[in-house]
Write a structure and sequence with these properties.
The complex is a heterodimer of chains A (about 170) and B (about 250). Chain A is α/β, with parallel strands linked by helices and about 170 residues long. Chain A contains four helices and seven strands, in the order ααββαβαββββ. Chain B has a single domain, classed as Ferritin (Up-down Bundle). In chain B, helix 1 runs antiparallel to helix 2 and helix 1 crosses helix 9. Chain B is globular. Chain B: One of its GO terms (biological process) is phenylacetate catabolic process.
């Protein structure tokens, strides 16, 4: 029975890896680290599946779409009893983003979050982390706005190749 | 009669929703594109926080209450937000200064709430605190830039300070339900909120070359549902669709 459960969990996880973030479609929800747990409560013919997810930001408008997409892929794979639970604690952090996810972001033209977190304090005019331009790899970049096209990004510009780019900010 | 906990959750939710709504009025009107995006991003964070608090309140109230019925089907006297959140935006300087005052309050409040003994409230506070930290940084940088900027920006910040200062005290004077919750949920640090807020405000205003007003008078009432004339207009706009077409979805 234990083995069967593990097989189901593995299958469900593989399915989750096909669900993409609607706002950054190169990333899957597992790359982002927003899937926190997969619970399979028994191994009867139609097992109960619970997927626990956490939002990147409180107001992330993608969460409803992501929940729906998870439900769709699981339904298509024949699962019927699906429950999707949102949890807030522990709060999501960019540390949970996978290495593969970071590489995909960079290839897509979005600078991935710096791996050493800058301390998140409310003090004004802090030194910004050195953010690498995803186009020319220069670290000679500047912050244009702390808030970008989505809640999870800041707007930067490269001083060398002059290209503006999104930075997936540390959180 | 609502329990103190439900009143408290609605208080937190209403503050976030009304200020989020006010900030959203800047969408498409910001002084430059990047800051238009910033202030509307802050709106999004605040409305997201409001949703979390409303969902929690709705589950506590029961009787088919939902986050939407709480936001769209209550009238002015049932809203518990602080008056400062509902004041008109004024110019960019006044919007920034209000955000700085309020975000600083939220920062210290959520810092205290994240360690309280109510698991769900602590979880929402922990999540929101990360966002509010960005809001404090952004708004304080702008207060300094404008206060210590040109003669005109300095003058505008003085006017904003005059317009807003008497509304700041309300955030820091606890209502009866806040006092009950502070005790019931063992919220440590609630006592020192005013002290921490004042210290941070003083530090930033001084750096912005702005005076710290000495007036001790506070305009109050919002926490008990006694609002300025401005809230009715906000609700009239925000709730119109649900009032005109009950239950409509899109």
């Amino acid at each position: 029975m234990q083995v069967a459960e593990n097989d189901i969990v593995r299958k469900v996880r593989a399915l989750l890896e096909t669900v993409c973030d609607p706002e950054i479609p190169v990333l899957t929800i597992t790359d982002l680290g927003i899937v926190r747990a997969v619970h399979v409560t028994d191994d009867k013919e139609s097992p109960d599946i619970e997927i626990v997810i956490t939002p990147t930001y409180s107001g992330c408008p993608a969460m409803d779409v992501i929940s729906m997409q998870i439900r769709m892929v699981l339904l298509e794979a024949g699962f019927k009893n699906i429950k999707i639970t949102q949890v807030l604690s522990p709060a999501w952090t960019t540390d949970w983003m996978s290495e593969a996810g970071r590489q995909k972001l960079k290839a897509y033209g979005i600078a991935p979050p710096a791996s050493t977190q800058s301390v998140c304090t409310p003090d004004a005019f802090q030194a910004e982390e050195a953010v690498q331009c995803p186009q020319c790899n220069s670290y000679n970049t500047k912050l244009i706005s702390r808030f970008g096209s989505t809640a999870c990004k800041s707007l930067y510009q490269c001083n060398d190749c002059k290209e503006p780019f999104d930075y997936f900010k540390c959180h | 009669m609502l329990s103190p906990k439900i009143k408290y959750l609605l208080y937190l939710a209403d503050n976030a929703l009304i200020l989020g709504h006010r900030n959203s009025e800047w969408c498409g009107h910001g002084p430059i594109l990047e800051q238009d995006i910033a202030v509307t991003n802050i709106s999004l964070d605040l409305v997201g926080q409001a949703r979390n608090f409303y969902q929690y309140a709705a589950s506590e109230i029961g009787n088919n209450t939902t986050e939407d019925s709480l936001a769209y089907l209550r009238d002015v006297r049932e809203f518990k937000n602080c008056l400062i959140t509902e004041l008109p935006n004024g110019d960019w300087g006044q919007t920034i200064l209000r955000q700085f005052f309020f975000s600083t309050y939220q920062y210290f409040l959520y810092t205290a709430l994240k360690d309280c003994n109510d698991e769900q409230l602590a979880a929402i506070a922990e999540k929101s605190l990360k966002e509010v930290t960005y809001h404090v940084r952004w708004s304080s940088e702008w207060v300094i830039r404008l206060g210590d900027g040109t003669a005109e920006s300095h003058q505008r910040m003085l006017t904003a300070l005059d317009n807003l200062w008497n509304y700041t005290g309300e955030m820091l004077i606890p209502s009866a339900y806040e006092k009950e919750i502070n005790e019931a949920l063992a919220i440590k640090g609630a006592d020192s909120l005013a002290e921490k807020w004042n210290r941070k405000i003083k530090e930033v205003l001084e750096e912005a070359t702005l005076p710290v007003p000495q007036s001790a008078w506070s305009q109050q009432g919002g926490k008990e549902g006694m609002h300025t004339e401005h809230l009715g207009y906000i609700l009239a706009e925000m709730q119109f669709l649900q009032r005109a077409y009950p239950g409509v979805e899109w």
